[in-house]
């Protein structure tokens, strides 16, 4: 397993990844502090979202607690032009892409099925039917090949795709099919699985008998297994894989070994299936703590900076709180806005019927007033 | 032991649990498969306790792969097992759609009757729980369109218990649509007395004379309520619970329509190409000279299921059902 920072934050040398990180300045003290701030921010947003759910403001929340390094690392490993294809728990990846947290919350609140423009932010909508995004990601990568955006030698424009899914989702047929397509067509894609040990109540052992990273090798897709709580290892590994893909070397597979510290979602009760001791063991591997220790060793972090991050994170949480509490429900007529791109007589008719029907109640209210 | 116990009161979810338990006790070929159905007891806790009781060979936590779940259930059925598979939410049955429609539904016919497929696919069904995308679908028409499948849609605890047992006993594949919004609504269950009414028959749950209202599963409470409300206005509605959606019990529905002359069909699924359309067409044929109004439908719009903050406007509620009744009686 690739690891650059051990549990106490000491950096262990790694010839290849150190070169990648150093070449791009990805491990400069300034960048490291940036990752630290990102992780603190996204964790605060995550905790706030959990409390918003408890306050009845969200229908559901899928926490990414504990997976901050796996997500911030992968998010920053992607270059501007890359296209990211997430599932429903990639809040850190979204943050790294510049997606504001309240956009994520729209889906969980139930006001929209996707809160951002995928083309503008080069990030696909969150996906809920597990694995179904994987072949779509490969198709996008096949499009990039056709558009001449792969293997030209210009790293600033050559593009690859990062497809994200969990250890559970890796069992879906569609994930296997997407590996087949990616390998057959040597598509510029990195399959990135965050193995957070559990698919709701089912441990990874039920999904696979070998480390997930080994699976893709049957397809001829090179793979790496990385400590997902080590932001630098994730960053270096995913950047290397994405660059190989964009250079025309074909698909790659990365498994990040991490842990889902919260329950599966706010509707789940992890105590029914998960040993407390395991949770404690992983709490000690907290990714934020690890980076902080590393920065301390480098003497690149001080109380001031930590306090500033905490303050900013608190402000973000408050903003999120107010934004969500102030969010109005959409007028249901908006249901009819987008089922088709072109005019559709049946939708138009049902929209009229709906408006006519809803108007009766406006009249009733007026009469009563 | 039978005949000793009095009826018990159970929520629908627990009535299904009891049905599964009793079926597993009665026949050791019955086994359960699905995601999170073991130690967790399923995301709706329908299989709660069964893993502890029957062990991991009979209550199987599967890998996360619906096509795999249904496909392996077909193979187990070939070996004489009676698998009951749980699909976690209605929107997740589609990865298994190929196995269900091209394989499970057709195996008996393909083998000229040499092979039976006693597989039950349990699906929590319908909306109204404030969930995110794909958790509130109404897939009944997709399955009803496929010959070889049977579909049951219990709306009461008693039906939930008995339909579970009867679906498992059935030699054909059965899709069980469980009204997830009503899982925790309680009702009387009599596990000791097999009901006289076949699961494949509809049930007149309220006799009436002015019009017939037909619904199933999650729409039953709103339809019953509409009949009470209409009664206060002097309108006497006959209410029918379809119970079986494949086959549909046309004789019972037609008899009612011949009496009332009017039919309103209520379902959550989109009206466009939905089961209501099929029933309306058949009743128009069978009862043409008895109808005093066209058969009307109230249901979902021709839209993807909306985000939850809009679902109240999408789902047929009391006002929309009563509006349908008014339109029906205007004729
Ligand atoms: C096709 C499909 N089946 C079932 C589900 C229900 N479900 C949602 S999340 C989940 C577990 C996913 O685990 P994993 O892929 O490891 O990702 P994690 O949630 O741990 O990040 C399940 C079974 C789903 N969303 N889609």
UniProtKB/TrEMBL annotation, chain B:
Record has Coiled coil as a keyword: no
Needed cofactors: thiamine diphosphate
Alphabetical list of SMART domains matching this protein: Transket_pyr (SM00861)
Superkingdom, taxonomy of origin: Bacteria
Enzyme nomenclature, EC number: 1.2.4.1
Oxidoreductase keyword on record: yes
Keyword annotations: Oxidoreductase, Pyruvate, Thiamine pyrophosphate
Record-annotated Transketolase-like pyrimidine-binding domain positions: 10-185
Gene3D superfamilies: 3.40.50.920, 3.40.50.970
GO terms of molecular function: magnesium ion binding; pyruvate dehydrogenase (acetyl-transferring) activity
InterPro entries: THDP-binding, Transketo_C/PFOR_II, Transketolase-like_Pyr-bd, Transketolase_C
Entry protein name: Pyruvate dehydrogenase E1 component beta subunit
Organism of origin: Brachybacterium aquaticum
